[in-house]
Amino acid sequence: MITMTVTADHIRTTITAYLDQHPEYKRELVAVLGLLEDGDDLTSRRTLPGHATAGAILVGPDGRILHILHNATQKWLLPGGHLEPSDKTLLQAAGRELAEETGIPPHVVTPHGETPLHVDIHLIDANPAKDEPAHQHFDFRFLFRTTADIGDLQTEEVSDAAWRELDEIADPRLRHRVAASLR
Q1: For the chain, what is the radius of gyration of the CA atoms?
Q2: Of the candidates 3, 13, 21, 88, which has an alpha carbon nearest to the alpha carbon of residue 54?
Q3: C-alpha pair distances (Å), 81 with each of 50, 87, 90
């Protein structure tokens, strides 16, 4: 089994910092904290009923948000994905995924902060091709800014990328948080 560099303590600390800013979401994250207390390795994509992922909300110079067309789902999503052994923090994982999927180099991307703007828990459908049952992603989403444009896409996972208006973010809580941080 591969040991990830992101630790349970780091995930717990990140959740605590997030809840300090958004205490009204404690009930939603109690289950994730419980899994950590039980010793579940949330850094492994094999951990069920769910595991941690990291996402990037990239704001361009005109205030639009970068979305990718994900090959597996055929949906427009924010860049992000599973943790890798080289990731030291959830923020670093989000930045790595952003760079991999969009071709935008890390040196032209600035994180808004160390604490996620949003933590989203969502269901992932079973994927028989990858021998994965249905499970949950505990998605730690970080806000980034850039003046760069889209680079070479990671075509194994992404078929298109586009800058979209803030109101095209489907999740109303995330849309509100991004709008508040851009003011």
Answers
A1: 16
A2: 88
A3: 13, 12, 11
CATH of 8-182, one of 3.90.1150.10, 3.90.79.10, 3.40.50.1220, 1.20.1050.10: 3.90.79.10
Measured CA to CA, the distance from residue 171 to residue 183 in angstroms comes to 19
Taking the CB of residue 8, how many other CB atoms lie within 10 A of it?
17
Measured between alpha carbons, how far is 100 from 65 in angstroms, rounded to an integer?
17
Tokens of 123: 């269901």
Say how many Å lie between the first and final Cα of the chain, rounded.
45
Answer whether residue 8 shows pLDDT above 70: yes
User: Across-strand partners of 137?
Assistant: 51, 122
pTM above 0.85, yes or no: yes
63 neighbors 182 (Cβ within 8 angstroms) = yes
pLDDT tens across 72-89, in order?
A: 888 899 999 999 999 999
Cα torsion through 145, 146, 149, 153, rounded to 10: -60
Cβ–Cβ under 8 Å, residues 50 and 137: yes
